[in-house]
Structure formats: structure tokens, C-alpha cells
Write a structure and sequence with these properties.
The protein has helices at residues 2-22, 39-47, 49-55, 141-171; strands spanning 26-35, 64-68, 77-81, 87-97, 101-107, 113-122, 127-136. Strands 1-7-6-5-4-3-2 form a seven-stranded antiparallel beta sheet, with helices on one face. It has four helices and seven strands.
Length: 176
């Protein structure tokens, strides 16, 4: 009986590994929106982390944010702490190309890091904003499973954040 249980557990473990190897080692999410404002109006909202916090989908009650470095551009940094006091992570602007592109380095503590970007293009309406997320997990099987499970959720959060950014750029107020 113990031998059968050990064989079953071994088979489950091998299946976990095999399925994990079939999952992508890189998670990519992109969402876009059209904003009725020129890139010069939208850019400061994505290049200043205090402004980013006004439209961010993660601006949840109880999360503590602190800022360091310059107010905007390369080196601007935001760190957050979870409501229970645990470190949450950090975000730093690593590329700033006004009024077209901002790249953020993301840190998630022991969960590793990722990269996010905001691409702004002139459009007939004003500005097309594309928010991208790239997370490389390599051969981390748990990371591959977590990535596969959270990819849709990140996309939903990005869509919400872009809707809030649109409202802020067009009216001065972020929607709920």
C-alpha cells in the first residue's frame, strides 16, 4: 500500500513538472485605450509615480505608499507595504522618453521582478496608450503556474487602470 501511494505521488509530481514545462516561461500582457488628449497631457500622468497612484487599479485602502528619488522620470521610485505590514514591492522608472514611453522596473520581493511599460502614440482621437507587462519565470515551475493563473487578472487590472487614466486625462478626475 505504501509502495502504491509512493508511485501515485511520484506520478503526480512528474505530471506537475511535465505540465509546468508546457506552460510559458514568459508572461506577457498588453492592454490599450484611446484617450481624447494629446500625448503631452497624458505623459506626465504615467511618468510621475504620485500621479500614477491617482489612476492605478491597485490604489487600495490600507496600502501604504512611499516615494523617493525625483518626482518624475528615471529614478522616481514607489514602494508599497501591504495592509498587514508585510512588504509589498516596489516600482521604479528605468526609462523615460517624453512624451512617448515610460518603462517601470517592478520588484515583488521574494517573488522576483518584472517590467511594465507605457507606450503613447498620437492617434486621430488624441493618444493611444498601450500598457504592457513582461514577467520572465524561466524554469520556475511554481512561477509558471502562478503566471498562467494570474495573466487574465493582470489584464483586467490593466484595463481598469487605463479606464481610470483616460478619465483623469480627459476630465481631471479618475473614475472609480
Amino acid at each position: 500500500m505504501i509502495r502504491k501511494a509512493a508511485l501515485a505521488l511520484s506520478a503526480l509530481f512528474l505530471a506537475f513538472l511535465a505540465i509546468g514545462l508546457l506552460l510559458p516561461g514568459e508572461i506577457r500582457v498588453q492592454r490599450s485605450i484611446e484617450i481624447a488628449a494629446p500625448p503631452e497631457t497624458v505623459f506626465p500622468l504615467v511618468d510621475d509615480l504620485r500621479e500614477f497612484n491617482r489612476w492605478s487599479p491597485w490604489q487600495a485602502a490600507g496600502v501604504d505608499f512611499s516615494f523617493s528619488g525625483p518626482e518624475s522620470g528615471v529614478g522616481a521610485r514607489m514602494v508599497w507595504t501591504e495592509p498587514d505590514g508585510r512588504p509589498g514591492g516596489g516600482q521604479e522608472i528605468v526609462v523615460s522618453q517624453p512624451p512617448r514611453r515610460v518603462v517601470y522596473g517592478l520588484e515583488f520581493g521574494p517573488r522576483g521582478g518584472a517590467e511594465a511599460s507605457m507606450e503613447l502614440e498620437s492617434s486621430p482621437l488624441g493618444t493611444r496608450v498601450t500598457w504592457g507587462f513582461d514577467y520572465r519565470v524561466g524554469y520556475d515551475m511554481v512561477g509558471r503556474y502562478i503566471g498562467a493563473l494570474t495573466q487574465g487578472r493582470v489584464g483586467e487590472q490593466y484595463a481598469l487602470g487605463l479606464t481610470r487614466l483616460k478619465a483623469l486625462a480627459e476630465t481631471g478626475e479618475a473614475s472609480p
